[in-house]
Amino acid sequence: MIVEFGHFALILALAVAIAQSVLPIAGFLRRDPALMAVAPRASMVLLLLVGIAFGALTYAYLVSDFSLVNVVENSHSTKPLIFKISGVWGNHEGSMLLWALILALFGAAVAIFGGNLPQTLRANVLAVQGWISTAFLAFIVTTSNPFLRLAEPPMEGNDLNPVLQDIGLAIHPPLLYLGYVGFSIAFAFAIAALIEGRIDAAWARWVRPWVLGAWIFLTAGIAMGSYWAYYELGWGGFWFWDPVENASLMPWLVGTALLHSAVVMEKREALKVWTVLLAILAFSLSLLGTFLVRSGVLTSVHAFASDPTRGVFILAILCLFIGGGLAMFAFRAGTLRQGGLFAPISREGALVLNNVFLTVSAGVVLFGTLVPLIVSAFGGAISVGAPYFNTVFGPLFGVTLLVVPIGPMLAWKRGDLLGALERLWAVFVVAALITLGVAWLNGATHLLAAVGFGVAAWVLTGAFAELWSRARFREAGLSVGLRRLAGLPRSAYGTALAHAGLGLTLLGIVSTSAFQSETILEMKPGDTTTVGSYSVTFDGIRNGSGANYSEMVATMTVRQGGAVRFVVEPSRRFYATRQMPTTEAGIRTHGLSQFYVTLGGEGRESGSIVVRMWDKPLVTLIWGGALAMMAGGALSLADRRLRVGAPKPARRLAPAAATD
Fold first, then answer.
1. Phi-psi region of 607 (alpha: psi -120 to 50; beta: other; left: phi over 0)
2. Which of 195, 260, 264, 297 is deepest in the core (most CB within 10 A)?
């Protein structure tokens, strides 16, 4: 009964989404406040109905209701509770229902927190959200219904893919979807602005918190997915340039550009057309990522769907919103009033340069991701892998990082480049000394690593240079400078922290890529080998079991200088229901570094096993930097100025009438 109620709620949600997409637009065209007032109410009802549907599917998983096809294919009665819950979205149908739920959640949030929006703008924004909800709910109801019943239910299910039975994959998809779907709000604001033909600083003030929130969640989702792949797949890397990974990176790059462009628009009323275009592109790339994962065109641990009908439906959604959004932009952009002018050497100019490199970087990733798919569609075969991305994307993003500390030092409208560089002289000295120090210690074989360390130091220390400059300790003294620091807005600290996070991530990437130690060999109990500065002894193997798997656990004692530092226990698990093995890495964090061990198959000698070991210096900074970026975004979001509407421009007084 609960399942049928959820199915009915899903169908009713589609009807409400259609009403939300049509009635507010009609109210805008007819200037009818009553029809426009339907939008916020419909969005709240839509959230309730989709929430009921999602809750009903979750209930079916919790009670192991194997009369549902979806539960049979992705669950098992012995599966731990956390993975029963995550199994709800660990499949195609459930993940699309989660997408629809988050979409409804954001629409309801606009209805609740958008009270300071003009009625016409709020109605149009929620109507566009209704269009998106209608498309995805129609997709779910017609091709991806999670409530399909079986006439003869089996006694047990097929279990969830063992690779997905991990806490990282329980968290990763919701975070990623909050980022993807969050950009739908920016898209809705952009389309609403094009419908009305008006965009100003108030629009940028309203849209920026939504963009910032989506960016924070997308950063969290990418970082969580990267760390999950790092420890769960047993390959020891943090980024594979997998097409599905690229699908999340592209909207992050464009979303970062959008965030900076919105700042310029809010402060200077410049870059209006560019900001609207970026808002459309950010969500378009989010939809493209959905198409790549859900259409079946890719074979990946992330990909679920293989039904061509689903692929065609998602492609139609893709064409409708990307093509329609860009067509409307082309039709209406010329009618938007241009914003203020600024010199090339200015803070606006630095942000524009940054945005150019970010969008070109996204274009490079897009090209490398789609070319193999296009070639294979015509019967050919081509592989675009890490060498292409590292060679092309790396330098482009590196230039972006070089600009990061300079931009905040420039004045708005017209800046002094030499003056900005003078204020960064200490930062430059630190970066140069670190570059020379790394080169001197490691020789000519690690010159690129030395440059990478220098760039990381430039970004990391330069991130806080603006705070130091605004405090003016040299002119005002310590006490006054500290008071000035305390009086700075939270967004200033958030920006510095987010930029510092970029430096930390780069430092972790360069360090582990250039200086990690790796060993692959066959070992038997009692054998000892060396990895970097560590001595590793294979103590033996024991057997164990979990709720729905059996495992073989190896014990490795790691010594340094003859003293025991720690013990790692990698394992291999076997899930009987799915008849699938998995590799569980043994990882021990020491300081900011990690020692990483995985088990392979049986060796050539009797009783031996293949072991792969790494010592990864400063690897945790990769994800520590992401945490710093997220914290910086959250700190900026807490700035009171982002929680209020844009200030209304002062009314110009009419000139007094001339008197005789």
1. left
2. 264
